[in-house]
Protein: ClpP/crotonase-like domain-containing protein
Organism: Leucosporidium creatinivorum
Amino acid sequence: MSSIVKTFPRGAAKALCSVSTPSKGIYLLSMHNEPDNRLTPDFIKQALLPALDDIELTFRKDWEKGDKEAALVFTGERIKNKFFSNGLNLELVNECPGFFKDYYGHLMERILTFPMHTVAAINGHAFAGGFCLAMCADWRVIRAERAWTCMNEIDFGAPLPQGMAAVLKQRLTPPTLRRVMLTAHRFTAPEALAGGFVDEICQGDGEATIARALEVAAQHQKHSSSGVLSMLKQTLYAEVIEGLRTDESIGSPFEQNAARFKQLQEAALAAKL
């Protein structure tokens, strides 16, 4: 079938993401927030969430007509295939009240509970918020080389919101979670597979990774037919969803450390009296 490409924001001169249908019932969402797909408030609100809504609306229209099989692949930038997503822009996050509840958390919840199987084609590096976004997919295919994954908040001093931590706890074993959270280790594709948080490695470039992810999606598109998939996911991820819906800011570790230092000084002074 011919693939119709829709771009988002709709009518914008520059697309931040696009949606195509490379085969019947298979949707491909490609992110174009150059150069590294930072998950900014505008990118999420104006492009990614509307794209997901458009995909779901099209699917539900087709479902009512009897075409009930569908699956979604989402992937990173495809010019250099260097980044799946380089995570959040913390300066913009701090300027956007409710970011984790209304923007980023909502995006992750939408993917976690999407009414069809989702596949993350990790065609480049996936760091921090981009790593968590990939973890929201039902399946993950990673490029064999030049696709590192990590959570590096410990390196630049950013606490982790409850929703992001809940996603990681859902997807990672305790030993892997400890390494991810407390060391900022950059996992190669073989390490990611050994850690159990990707499902397979694709030998080849970023486009080959996307092509393989589309094949995986086709294997699972039948599971949307009963119409119950989203409800099953909502039950399965109930605790994660609760965390994603928490309205919070990440705050400053320096303020917390300073407050703790003051508390310890006061306790030491009181002990001498």
Summary: Residues 41-65 form the longest helix (25 residues). DSSP finds twelve helices and ten strands in the chain.
